[in-house]
Amino acid sequence: MDTAFVIQQLIFGITLGCLYSLIAIGYTMVYGVIRLINFAHGDLLMVAAYIGFFGIVIYHLPWPVAFGISILLTAALGILIDRGAYKPLRDSPRISALITAIGVSFLLENLGIVIIGGRPKSFPRPSLFEGDLQFDQLILPYLSLWVLGITVMLLTLVLLIVHRTRVGMAMRALSRDFETVRLMGVDVDRVISFTFVLGSSLAAVGGIFWCMKYPAVEPFMGVIPGLKAFVAAVLGGIGSVSGAALGGLLLGLAEVLIVAIQPEWSGYRDAVAFTILIAILLTRPTGIMGEELPK
């Protein structure tokens, strides 16, 4: 197999893996704090994409302003979902919150169909992200460089927040013993809201970059990326931020390289992710970097 071809596929795999990582970190943070698999998380990707689309195409805002508003409004929606859907069920059985998360996901998707319509819309890519660098037979898209750089920067920022700030200390404490932290006078609801803000913002960034790579915006666009990001979180170790980033990277590389090596398997690309999920749950349920947490 040609070396340039292999490197090219690695670039594509890393780009896809970074997108999965951005979404997976939000999954893993929410689960780590309140033990909730937020299945509505993938749909925040769709909401962010639509806000960015309308900001640029309908209201003719400069793309940095449109993307900034998209991230802020998606973060606000994350708080609204937490306060309206999950907070009333904080002391209920976990299955109640899980069912509610699925319901919120369906609500967002169907609101998108009713309000906007189901026809896909072409997402505009700003000129800054267009073009590529070419080295002989190797093509390095500028978008891939941006995705990698932004992902590394945001991952570093999240790790600093989690490990170097008071709110990060509170988040880590909540992941260990929810009731004790509450009894110590910590404003648990505020910490959880901050977790949703951070996770939703990352999903928004992931959604914007996803649409620049795959420029079709429609109400169900967040379903498959959201499920694959969940697989990435489980693979890396759900509850671990670094694990989610690693899991997303490995999943993206696996998807691209398998199809590159066996092109006839391209129709089974989505099945690769769920096969990995089954395998990791059977062999190492805590994931690569996960650890046993209190029940």
In short:
By secondary structure, the chain is an all-alpha fold.
Description:
- With 295 residues, the chain is an all-alpha fold.
- The chain has helices spanning 3-34, 41-57, 63-86, 94-115, 142-164, 166-176, 178-183, 188-213, 223-236, 241-261, 269-283, and strands at 132-135, 138-141.
How big a fraction of the residues is strand? under 5%
* CATH class descriptor name: Mainly Alpha
- The figure for the number of domains is 1
User: H/E element string?
Assistant: HHHHEEHHHHHHH
Task: Examine the secondary-structure arrangement and name the CATH architecture.
Answer: Orthogonal Bundle
Give the helix level as a range of percent: over 70%
Major sheet characteristics: 2 strands, antiparallel
Structural class: mainly alpha
The strand order across the widest sheet is: 1-2
| Average predicted confidence as pLDDT | 92
Task: Give structural attributes.
295 residues; ABC transporter involved in vitamin B12 uptake, BtuC; mainly alpha; two-stranded antiparallel ribbon; 72% helix; globular
